[in-house]
Amino acid sequence: MYNYNYKVKSGVTGTGIAVLFTVALASCTTTTIDEFRQGETGIESHESIVILGRRQASNYETREDFVNCVGEHVNQGENGINVVPEQEFVDALFPWFEPRTAPLRTQDLERLMAESVVAEKLDEFGIRYIVWVDGFTETTGRTGSISCAIGPGGGGCFGFGTWEDDSRFDARVWDVDALTSVGTIRADATGQSYMPALVIPIPLIARVEANACSSLANQLKQFVRGS
Amino acid sequence: MAAMFGILAACGVNNVTVTGTYPTPNVGKLPLKIAVYYDEALRDFSYIEYTETGKEEFDIHSGQSHIDLFNAILPGMFEQIVIVDSMEEAKGTGVDAVFAPAIEEFQLALPYKTKLDMFEVWIKYNMRLLTADGEYIADWVATSYGKTPTETFRSNEAGINEAAFSALRDLGSSFSLNFARVPEVRDWLASR
After folding, report:
1. Nearest CA to CA, how far is A93 from chain B (Å)?
2. pLDDT band at residue B153, thresholds of 50, 70 and 90?
3. Could you say which of B26, B149, B170 has the minimum Cβ distance to residue A100?
4. From B26, B169, B170, residue closest to A117, measured CB to CB
5. Half-sphere CA count of A93, side-chain side, radius 13 A
6. The total number of structural domains that make up chain A
7. Which H or E run contains A31?
8. Which stretches of chain A score pLDDT less than 50?
9. CB contact (8 A) between residue B177 and residue A101
10. What is the mean pLDDT of chain B?
11. What pLDDT, in 10s, does the model give residues A150-175?
């Protein structure tokens, strides 16, 4: 078993000092990636993976947009991997991968593969790995206030607001051939967003979830390729 | 926020018609010819959500969406499906059984009432399986649940539709997997 951990601090350049300061503030995001490997991996060019969101929790739901974002990133680039879109896969495998019926453990997958209709469909898609993405983004520490007013001569806003976003996502990789879990990648991204308002509000949004998505996807691509 | 909801409530009831397309289940088909009877209560089913002051807030129509769901899943579960307009019509069709679903209860949880970042829908059904002559074969309760998180720029109507669509899809998955496991249905299938 191997455990890797690294941090990425994103930075952006700009032309003017003000723009640089603004953009630097907006892009102040820290992303940590942890990788836990339990088995060997590798994928052939004719094989595919599917990335599915976990939706069993009662208090949150892994957003479809995030799952699609990871899928698109894994599919792109020179080392891109074939990714079957989540909705297409879940519809084709209906009713076996719905929130109430989806396998929670690899033992459940083994039982599921005993169903010939499921095994045939997975084979048809060429699925080698199923990746379960589970997590959410939480906004905390909202402070400040912005007041807006409108009158006959015009309107405007004044004030300052700030908040912190924290994205935590796990990607568990199941090997469909071996019916085992081969590892987990965890992405944790935090960032502070600001909203100064001087006549008009200027949102300086930390791209926390977008950074978590791209970092998780890049690591997942390397993990699946076994590099 | 309270003022905004007050204004909304003052504007009258908001109509929501549940829409969505449902997949056909990938399950082994049972060698049965089944008649399906959607009664008027199911076809015209709607649920009204009230504000805390007792005013009508949302009128949610899901009858047609339930019909769309059953029309999508039943042909994947049985060899042959015949839709009938009355129980009498089923008598002359030579079917093995008549399936008649009914909605017993519909519940909605809105994020600004529960203080959770979720739209949630629960539906309770009474599923009935009868002979072509209208005699009892099986009668069981099924429940379904659907939820969807709140999202910036998504309307309440869209959130309710998404949660209801998820609940109907949940019904489709549990019904198609569990139909033959219902004790009375299992006994009836074994006796054939």
Report:
1. 6
2. confident
3. B170
4. B26
5. 29
6. 1
7. strand A29-37
8. 1-2, 8-16, 20
9. yes
10. 92
11. 988 889 999 999 999 999 999 999 99
**Looking at beta carbons, which residues of chain A come within 8 Å of B25?**
94-95
Q: Following DSSP, what letter does each residue of A158-183 receive, concatenated? A: EEEEEEEEEEEEEEEEEETTTTEEEE
Q: ipTM of the predicted structure?
A: 0.88
Substitution target in A60, A88, A94, A205 with the highest count of B β-carbons within 10 Å is A94
**Quick check: B23 and A63 CB within 8 A?**
no
Domain around A191? 2-225
State residue A3's pLDDT score: 52
Nearest by CB to A95, from B25, B145, B148: name it.
B25
Which helix (H) or strand (E) segment holds residue A224: the answer is: helix A208-225
Closest residue of chain B to A120, computed from CA coordinates: B26
Tokens for A124, please give them.
């048809």
Backbone phi, then psi, for B79, in 5-degree steps?
-60, -45
Count CB neighbours of B16 within 10 A.
Answer: 23
Q: What is the predicted pLDDT for the residue at A175?
A: 97
Residue A31 and residue A169: Cα distance in Å, rounded? 11
Mean pLDDT of B79-93: 92
Mutate to test the interface with A, among B21, B22, B26, B29 (most CBs of A within 10 A): B26
Going by the DSSP 8-state scheme, the letter that residue B91 receives in this structure is H
Task: Please report which confidence band the pLDDT of residue B6 belongs to, taking 50, 70 and 90 as the band edges.
Answer: very low
d(CA B71, CA B46): 19
CB atoms within 10 A of CB A138: 13
Smallest CA–CA distance, residue B118 to chain A, in Å, is 8
B chain contacts of residue A96, beta-carbon cutoff 8 Å: 26
Percent of chain B with pLDDT over 90: 86
Domains of chain B: 31-55+62-191 (3.40.50.10610)
For B24, name the nearest residue in chain A, comparing CA atoms only. A94
Q: Mark yes or no for CB contact B28/A94 under 8 Å.
A: no
Does residue B166 surpass a pLDDT of 50? Answer: yes
- Say whether A108 sits in a helix, a strand or coil: helix
